[in-house]
TrEMBL record:
It comes from the Bacteria. CDD domains: YkuD_like. This is Protein erfK/srfK. GO terms for biological process: cell wall organization; peptidoglycan-protein cross-linking; regulation of cell shape. Belongs to the YkuD family. Residues 4-111 form the L,D-TPase catalytic domain. The lineage of its organism: Bacteria, Bacillati, Bacillota, Clostridia, Eubacteriales. PANTHER family: L,D-TRANSPEPTIDASE, L,D-TRANSPEPTIDASE ERFK_SRFK-RELATED. The active site is at residues 71, 87. It comes from Desulfosporosinus metallidurans.
């Protein structure tokens, strides 16, 4: 079975889910603002939490870089903008869809 991976394009504000080399879904996202940019690099999903509370919406997927993650939002109008403290913010229905399709250890590549 081909492995899944996530590619995040911060300038396009888009998250892509791949199965092997095949794009299977893409989602609009919000990324870090100028003072707190989303850090480019190669990471993995380190933790998964359902209903983490607060501003993180309905799901949290912590990355292997501390204090950063892919999460939902309680402010859906922010999606598509550079407004976060470096995390990748998604609509709650999108983050729930993604959450079901990835596991701890899934590679995450963040590009500009």
């Amino acid at each position: 079975m081909p492995s899944r991976s996530i590619v995040i394009h911060t300038t396009r504000r888009q998250l892509e889910l791949y199965e092997g080399n095949r794009l299977i879904r893409h989602y609009p996202i919000a990324v870090g603002k100028g003072a707190t940019p989303t850090p480019p690099g190669h990471y993995t999903i380190a933790t998964k939490t359902v209903f983490p509370g607060g501003v993180f919406g309905s799901r949290w997927m912590g990355l292997s870089i501390p204090h950063y993650g892919i999460h939902g939002t309680n402010n859906p109008t922010s999606i598509g903008q550079a407004v976060s403290k470096g995390c990748i913010r998604m609509h709650n229905h999108d983050v729930e869809h993604l959450f079901q399709r990835v596991e701890v250890g899934t590679p995450v590549i963040i590009q500009r």
